[in-house]
Input
Amino acid sequence: MLELGVFDGAYFNDYSELPADWSRNVSQMNFFGVHASQSLAEWQRKGWIFPEDPLGWFQWYCRYTMGRRVPEMDAVQIKRWKAMTRHIAQLKQNCMIGDVNCRPRQRQALLHWAYDSRKI
Output
């Protein structure tokens, strides 16, 4: 995700708690060249930010991948991740396989959620 350019280098740029190899080749470019996220203030307003992970889902995802478990929060975040399948279905229904220019905002949003849509 970081190598592909998931956050434009602005959203999540403190990699100090991540393993060094995760942030070795961070791209400062947004892979699909589109803005596909909401502001942190909007995330807070919608109740998507938890005190344990003040930078949101990606911070939770990294910590979860590294072994941290907070069962109630994990259940909420995994449910949110699974809800992204609607975007995958829309890409499959509306785009030619491998056409990364089709629906770039949805593709960038999927990348935010750790799904590489270049294969569909």
